[in-house]
Each structure stands twice: as C-alpha cells, then as structure tokens.
Amino acid sequence: MRQAVLMRLYKSPEHLQGLGDSSYHSHQLESLQARLAASTPAVSLPDLLSEKIDALNGQPPHPIRTDIGLYLETLSNIKSIPLPAPYRRVNIAVRHYASTCFDEFSQLSQVLTSALLDLMQKPKGYYISGEAPIVLWQSDYLELRIPLAH
Length: 150
What we know:
By secondary structure, the protein is an alpha+beta fold. The chain has three helices and eight strands.
C-alpha cells in the first residue's frame, strides 16, 4: 500500500499557480520536509473523468475539485506524522494503471483523451475504475495514471 498526503482545493488545476513545485504541494508541511523528502509532487483529479464525459456530451462545466500534495512511494512512517488540518492521508492500493507520460500540464486534456480512446479501442481485460486519476511530477516528465479495474 502506498499513500499520498493531499489537500482538497475547490479550483480547477488551470487556476492553480505553482503545480509541480514541491514547496507549493507541501504548503503548511514545512516542519515535515526532512521526513517527506523522498516524495513526488502530485495532484489527484476526482472530477477529471466526469468533466471529460460532460464536455463530450455538450453539458456545461461544473465546479472542479483538485487534490494537491505529495505521493509517498516508500515512506512507511507516514502514519506517525501529524498532519496540518487541511491535509489528509489517502491510501493508494497497489493496482494496475493506464500510464502515459507528457511534458507540460497544459497537455493533460489531450493526453487524457488519447489514453481513454486507446483503452476503449483496445480492450486488454482491464477497465477504467472510475477512481480519481493522478498526475505525478517525475524528475523529467509528468505521468498521468488512470486507475484500472480487472
């Protein structure tokens, strides 16, 4: 099991300045920087899939939620870290993902569309789970992970 430490914002990612910057993703976690040093800036986008479906059906956009924070690949001691009130721990089960890499966050909509079309046109025994996609800021690229179900 992996974890993320996330804070919910009621804004679309396009209206958030500083995405991908570790200090922005860990705002209010300054006292924990040493223990969170091996983390990856991340956003979880709980409305991304429904927003894409609404747009394809010509429906007006609805308010978007964005969870920003840190993806913790290896830290098992996160349970003992007290978090500031706006943050919460999110357990991320080990699972299969459709993963694709891209260069700039502005490409997210195009990358998501391409990944969804690929998943629908080439069935592989896995289906989109409906859980929130995650974008990780890796060292040289961004990675979109779409959770899949078997």
